[in-house]
Amino acid sequence: MVNTVKRKAILFILDGFRTDYVFRVRRSKIREMAEKGAGPRYAWSIFPSMTHPAHTSIITGLYPQAHGCFSQHYLDVQRGVKRDPTCYNRYRGSPLPELLKKMNGKTVSIEEFTCIGKCDLYINIPSHSVEEIVYYAKTVLRREKPDLLIITFFITDDIGTLYGPESNKIAEAIREVDDAINEVIDYAEEAWKKSSKLYIITSDHGMTYAGNNVRRNIEETIETADFLHEGHYTHVYLRGRRIPNKICLSTLIKGVDVVFEKEELGFLNNYDPYMGDFTISLKEGYNTYGSNVKHRGVHGGFTDDEMQVPLIIYGDYVKEGASLRFAEIVDVAPTLAAFFGFNGSFDGRPLAEAFTVDEERRLEILKETAFLDMAYRKIRTTLRKLSEIKGMLARNEIIRREYYAFKRNLNSSVRKLKNEFDARKQALKKLGFELLREKTS
Question: Which CATH class is domain 7-208+302-357?
Fold first, then answer.
């Protein structure tokens, strides 16, 4: 059995933390860790870029399609009720704390709700107070002596949503979180003197400007449907027939960025039968909040600002200044698992290229991840093209027969690319676990 006692780690999840926030403050601990540690320019979150499904993907290393938390909410159309698919004790897959427990490891979670019932100790702070988080972090490091400490800061999401991602208040929130991380790491360094240590910083999603409300426009254009509005995207559950017409017509609504049919979300690893018939994602500067909501920030959509998040790896065995070509939030859990010396059923892969592994193998990984980066971008571009041809049909620029031919060809190309992406990533996952097992054994 692996001895986890000599390896310690802290995972910091900064809710709603955009990639540009890393360098928003000139002198900061987060910036220092980004420069001296390893990581990509950004990692990709999941779509919809919402708190519950994204946090679950970070902790389980699984895509929403696998863990079942595919959205913040969904509609049970037959019963006519709004439901929450993210029941923390019922998602599929084993989260990192459960896997670590099987290896005699101990996990403490502060504010990370996906760990409720899954870790040795969970601490909830309703106020989201950063000061209290630091207090409890230092207390559990001293008293509980965890092998893995998971800390979530919600303040950046709270402030970004209320005042917008460019506000002065978000800069203050970044400084507050940065000071907290610095204090916790300083304390951990002292408490874990005799242990190998790893620190990871990431986020569940980014943030964009909320702007104009188009909720009524969507409902009046589509009409015969049930709508589930989630800030920057809307699930649409159609009533009756003429589904293709309604889907295509929705692309013409002002502020609409991309329209996904239910099956197309499978290319983003998030197909679920409870999804709406189609999902509308909005451009920057538009939202579907309720009429009484005056938020200036929003997330959940398909834009880069929402789906690109920081991923910083810092500590022992990490290759200083290593730049990664491609990473996703589902790679966090397998990277931590490999550091602790065990494997699991993950969709993500351990980011071995962030560590001081054999340089020839590391370069091999970088070459393969360059393909993953290209393929993922092309998948995103093709999904946008699928949305664009819906608009072309709605504007009568193409006839229905041409529409279905274009759609068939685009679906075929993206499916082929997705299959190759998955196969190469699977091979990298196997190699990553092998290299890190050699490194940390």
Answer: alpha beta
